[in-house]
Design brief:
heterodimer, A: alpha/beta, Cytidine Deaminase, domain 2, 8 strands, about 20% helix, B: alpha+beta, Ubiquitin-like (UB roll), five-stranded mixed β-sheet, about 15% helix, globular
Chain lengths: ~160, ~100
Amino acid sequence: MATAATLKMSAAIAQEIREQGAQGYPNECCGALLGRDTDGSGATTTGGSVSLPVREIVALFPLVNRRDDSPRNRFSVTAEDVRDSERAAQEKGLDVVGWYHSHPDHPARPSQYDREHAWPWYSYIIVSVANGKPQEMTSWRLSDDRSEYACEEIAIRDRASK
Amino acid sequence: MGVKVIIPTPLRVYAGKRDSTEVKATTVGEALGRLTTEFSDLRKHLFTDDGKLRSFVNVYVNDEDIRYLAKENTPTKDGDTISIVPSIAGGSAFCCSRCA
C-alpha cells in the first residue's frame, strides 16, 4: 500500500488518542478528527480536496461507540454523531477530516470490514491496544476506487512526549 | 427552483468540489439518480454494485430520515433540501489477508 499524505498532530493529540484507546479497552473507542488541510505552506484549503500533502489534526471529538452488541471488535458512529461532530468542528473553524478508533488486542491495520465501511477523503486513525496498553498508531485513506487503503505518514510535532 | 442536494465533505471532490447542487426531481431516488448522472464518480460511494444505497449512507429530506418515510420513493418538491450524511463504522474483526 502506497503512502498517500502526511497527517500532522501534536504529541498531546496523539497521546489523547492512545489514552482513549486504553480507557476504552477491551472495547473499541472512537471519535472525530477535527482539523484542516493545507497546501503545505500553511494556506487552508477546506472543502473536499483530496490530493493535498498536509492535513493537520487540531482537536478531537470523542464519541460513544454505538455498537452495544459487539463493542470489542466493532465501532459505529451514527449520522447524528457525524452531524454533532461537524457542528463542533464548525464552531472551531475546522472541518471533520477523519475518524479514529482502537483495535483491542489486534494490529493497527484496517480490516476488510473497515475498508467496506470507509468513506474516501477522510483519514482513519487506528490505534492498537494490547492488554490495555496502547501500541502502534497508524492512519489510512480509502482509494478513489474503494479497492484499498493507502497509509498516511503520521507526523507528531513534539517527539519528546510521543 | 429545484431540489437542493447537500453533498457531504468527503464526496465533494467527486462533485466538482461543490458543497451542494440543485436537481429537478419528484422523489429522492430520482434526485440521487440525477446527482450521480451529473457526477458519475459519486455513484460507487453512494450505491452498491447492485444499485442499492450503501448502508452507511443516510439521506434526509428537510431533516427527516427517509428510512422513516418512503425510503427512495419519498416524494420531493421544489424548495426541498436533501442531505446526504455519512455514518461511520469499522472494527478489527474479519481482517484481510494483509493483516499480521
